[in-house]
Amino acid sequence: MRSYEMKDVAKTHISEAGPSDFDGADIERHGDPEIVDDGDAPAPGIAIAELETSKRGRFAYFKTKQFYIVLILGQVLSLCLTATNTFSSLLANNGNSIPAFQTWFNYVLLNLIYTSYTIYRYGFKGYCRFLWTHGWKYVILSFCDVEGNYFTVLAYRYTTILSAELINFWAIVIVVIVSFLFLKVRYHPAQVVGIFICIGGLGILIGSDHITGTNQYSVSSGDQLKGDLFALLGATFYGASNVAEEFLASERPLYEVVGQLGFWGMIINGVQAGIFDRGSFQSATWNGPIAGYIVGYTLALTIFYSLAPVVFRMGSAAFFNISLLTSNFWGAIIGIQVFGLTVYFLYPIAFVCIVGGLIIYFVGKQVFGESLKPWLGRNQEKGISGIGTAKRRAEHPDVLV
Fold this sequence. Notes:
Helix content: 55-70%
Shape: globular
Strand content: under 5%
Structural class: mainly alpha
Radius of gyration: 22 Å
Distance between the termini: 7 Å
Largest sheet: none
Number of strands: 0
């Protein structure tokens, strides 16, 4: 990634600059990490039009570096998710089932890193004004994120993993419907085909587990129904939070979005952990390995939360969700070494199927891929010029992200 010098604020476009409605003394005092000297840069609208007309065709996006970057980032997130699932399994195998409590450390770390930096950027008074003006949006985002985590983990206590994985498809449905209705996103046929191919790949994974008897255990019919409802509720919250985060990340600085997610998530999750995990916490086993598992879980989840907004900017909430479908495959690979599992021959086939669906998803997309957000205007004038955005790439065509 290129490094940019911080020059005279009066002569630059502000990118990742934070709230535009602040009385900027506190903000301008510290400049901005992504301020670029744009004296000779073309207007974003002109640059977007020129880039779109210069490289057209069904496979135009495949010829850009951004396609491979977002594809790799999606798999990095999938690996992070696999790591968190692995550490959760290790904790559970050692008699520690404290889902809300173990996730709380992630929100604390995000808050320490990103909220501290947000306060530095805006100044304390500016940050307080920001909370008064925009805080409610992040309360909603954090609530959906915390409850998505909580109800999904809770579902695994009552239903089979096979059933919960099938219901998790609902998150993709929620993302597509909410994006279509509220964000004016329109999916072309190749994207729909790509999504179904990815879902088909996960279906092969689930079928493989069913054939080999993996992830099966007996549950009562009453608990099965309860678990399925929890899984459905968790998937609904997940889908809503993904779309909300994509919307906010396209208009606000990344450090603000992630920092607020950590700040409010820490409070909401902390209250929830105090109410529902108190008994499990008191009966949990505490030793060196357990502490190591919690640290590993927290670091993997923090990386996940830090990179997710970049994928939302370069791709979309839909692409984000179908990218994570490969986590089952990565989980099986890790399971061979950690838990002594064996991999059925259908697993590699499923992985190739999902990756193929991810590629087909971008057929017909032009050079900006999904980074052009319809709710930001034709020339992205309502959006922010930051890492991963079309506006930034239009102003500086040689940047990677």
